[in-house]
Amino acid sequence: MGLLEEFNDYRAKMNEKILAEDNKVIKRFFNLDTNAYSEGALDVKSKEMIGLACSMVLRCDDCVKYHLEQCYKAGVIRKEIFEVFSIATLIGGSIVIPHLRRAVEFWEVLENQ
User: Fold this and answer.
1) Is 110 helix (H, G, I), strand (E, B) or coil?
2) What is the distance between the alpha carbons of residues 101 and 73, in angstroms, rounded to a whole number?
3) How far is residue 37's CA from residue 20's CA, in Å, rounded to a whole number?
4) 2: three-class secondary structure by DSSP
5) What per-residue confidence (pLDDT) applies to 6?
6) What is the mean pLDDT of the chain?
7) What sign results for the dihedral spanned by CA atoms 60, 61, 65, 68?
8) Of the candidates 45, 73, 65, which has an alpha carbon nearest to the alpha carbon of residue 107?
9) CA dist., res. 106 & res. 66, Å (int)
10) Boundaries of each Carboxymuconolactone decarboxylase-like domain copy (predicted)?
11) Is 54 exposed, middle or buried (0-12, 13-18, 19+ CB in 10 A)?
């Protein structure tokens, strides 16, 4: 199983288990997240690029992978992704570099699927 499939399968399986508990707070938080990235004054592509940069600065590899895939689906191209990477690295500093490496690896998986 490849990196992309492994990530998506695990995420889907665990989200299903979490949501099956029917916890109102968790369900509302998941819904808030979904709504925040919906089309609004900013388009989905822009919101996903912002989410990616924030995830890199916060050093959340799962979040980075999620937003990379959403960026890819929204039509973000390689040059745009590397501009997002550059902003995240500038804001976050050298501690972001290991996450940058994994992000580039995951982006290449998306490009080659």
Assistant:
1) helix
2) 21
3) 23
4) coil
5) 96
6) 97
7) positive
8) 65
9) 10
10) 27-105
11) middle
Per-residue pLDDT tens over the stretch 54-75 = 999 999 999 999 999 999 999 9
| Domain extent for 29 | 3-112
Give the residues of the chain that fall short of pLDDT 70: none
Could you give phi then psi for residue 34, rounded to 5 degrees? -60, -45
Residue pointed to by tokens 């508990």: 21
C-alpha to C-alpha distance for 95 and 29, rounded to whole angstroms: 28
Identify the pLDDT of residue 1. Answer: 79
Total domains in the chain come to 1
3-state secondary structure 21-81: CCCHHHHHHHHHHHHHCCCCCCCHHHHHHHHHHHHHHHCCHHHHHHHHHHHHHCCCCHHHH
Token pair for 15: 């989200």
Under 8 Å between Cβ of 56 and 100: yes
Cα angle for residues 12, 17, 22 (degrees, 5° grid): 120
